[in-house]
Structures are given as structure tokens and as C-alpha cells.
Amino acid sequence: MPGHDIIVIGASAGGVEAVIQLVRGLPADLDATLFVVLHIAPHGTSALPTILNRAGPLKAKHPEHGESIKKGHIYVAPPNQHLLIKNGHIHLSHGPVENGHRPAVDPLFRTAARSFGPRVVGVILSGALDDGTAGLVAVKSRLGVAVVQDPEEAIFDGMPRSAIENVQVDYIMPLVDIASLLVRLSKTPVKEIPREVSALMKQETEIVELDMDAVENENRPGTPSEYACPLCGGALWEVQDGQLTRFRCRVGHAFSPETLLAEQSEAMEEALWAALRALEERAALSRRLADGAYTRSQARTAQRFEDQADEATRNANLIRQTLLKGIAAAMVEGTDGRKEDREATD
Hints:
Elements: E1 6-11, H1 15-24, E2 33-38, H2 48-55, E3 59-61, E4 73-76, E5 82-86, E6 89-93, H3 105-116, E7 120-124, H4 133-141, E8 145-149, H5 158-166, E9 171-173, H6 175-186, H7 199-208, H8 212-215, E10 223-228, E11 235-241, E12 244-249, E13 254-255, H9 257-295, H10 299-345
Parallel strand pairs: 1-2, 1-7, 2-4, 3-4, 7-8, 8-9
Antiparallel strand pairs: 5-6, 10-11, 11-12, 12-13
């Protein structure tokens, strides 16, 4: 009878240090396999496998698509690819971005839960915002175990706190105790009770795998919301997953609530910068036309262009003040965790 031998780990900002400390406490004969998703820049490189190989006795690597799962190994999601588990093998997918990231934590947790049910242990470590919460809901729905780093000690407590607030977590503990817990769980026999995979889980795992039947299925999960996808502009469907509300668009982009709010802030800032550029160009062109009218002694026309330039300048100044005082501050609060994590793993 197998133990809890499929351990999926999700982290973001501050996650490098957390994963290193966790791996350092695991033995070489661990009777389990670890899968790690850490948010990294899509076009960067990740040195995390090298770092983890130095940190502890388990072998860490970026897996190949279709590779068989081996115990005593740590499989780290490579840049710009979702790390998935299917039929006892590892799948890498360029599927839709989830929670603003590829790789994202939720797809790994969800596919592990679908494939291995109660054998899965989902672990959420330091990170900003709320990626991993929906994945942990999936793990629990299939009778897996949910473990969360104590948010009081996490460098960034967003991901741990979101998980605790929305999931019936089994263990909340400091990093120093998680490694020994995982060893104990890997040796605890798991009785695999048949439990049907929900239609929602099937569809979402198939969407991230780029199964075209699922992607093109008109029966979208959830109900249409009043919000638009900040990445593609399409309509978002609202999905109620236990007590957690999530959103997914027609092409598969997925968001937890805090991540959607952060993405909307980013989209708003981009729109304001575009408006500022357009207004400044309008002001510059209007003044040029005014100068031309003056040289032709067309005073009334020149004044009309001057008025247009002044109006554009006033509006541009208002947008500039908004960017400097409002949106910029919100962006620092909502995305500096992502930036720190990318710098740490590039």
C-alpha cells in the first residue's frame, strides 16, 4: 500500500530560500517524489535544480516531457512551461497562463490530485498573492493532505494566508518541521478510496494540457461574470470552487481573486500610459498646427489649435499625477513579490 508519495510544492516571492531549507531537511532515501513550481520569468533561466542539488541529497532536475516519475527525485518546473502530472508521467505544457504565470502552481496541484488522489501532499510556501489556493482545494477534494508554511515566518505571507483562509488545511507549521512531516507522511499507508473526478477538474486539467476538445468546448465552467480577462479582453466565467471564487476566460487564462485584482491594476497602468502618450502627441501636434496657422496670419485657427493643445496638456497632467501617486503605489504593493522572485531565480 503506497504512502503519501506525491509531494507538490508551490512558492513565489521568498520561495527560493524556503525550498532550499525544506530540501535540506529531507533524507536521501525519501520514499516519495517532489514536484516544485516556483514563479520565474518566462524567458529567463532557472538555476533552482543546481541550487537544490547542492542543498540536499535528493537529485533535482528540470524534467523532460513524458518522463517517468522516479522516487527520490525533485522535478522543478522549467521557465515558461506548466509542470503537470498525467498517468504516472510528467507533462510539460505551454498552456494558458494561470494567475499571471507559466509555470503556475495550480495546474501542478490539480493534475496531481486528479492522477493520484489521496497520495498527494500539497505544500504552499512563501509567496505573494494567491496562486496555489485553488490547487490546494483540488488536492483536498481528492482526499489529499494540505500543508502550509506558517505565514508568520514566511518572507511573503500572501500565498500561505490565502490558502489558510480558503482551504481546510491539515498542517500549518514552520519550515523546520515540514521536512520531518513529509518523511512521516511518505511512510503512512494510504488507502486509495475510489472517488470520481469532478467534471470541473477534468475540464481544467485538459485545458492546461491544450486538449482542443476541452479548449473548444462551449460549455465553459462556471457562469458568465461582468468582468473581462485582463490578458486577452475576453469574458470571464466565475467558478465557485468550495468557498473559493475563481475566474477563467474562454481561451483558458485563469485567475484567483487577488491575482485578478493585481492583473487589472497592471492593465490599468498600461492603458493610462497609452493615454498619456496619445495626449502628449496630440498637444505637440496641435501646437505645431497653431504655429503654422500663425505664420499664415490665421489667428482664429491658431487659437483653436492652441486651445486644443492646452486641453490635451491638462488631461495629460491629470493622468501623470494618477500614475505617480495612485497606480504606481498599487503596483509596487501588488507585484514586487513577483519581481523579487524572478530576480532570485534568473
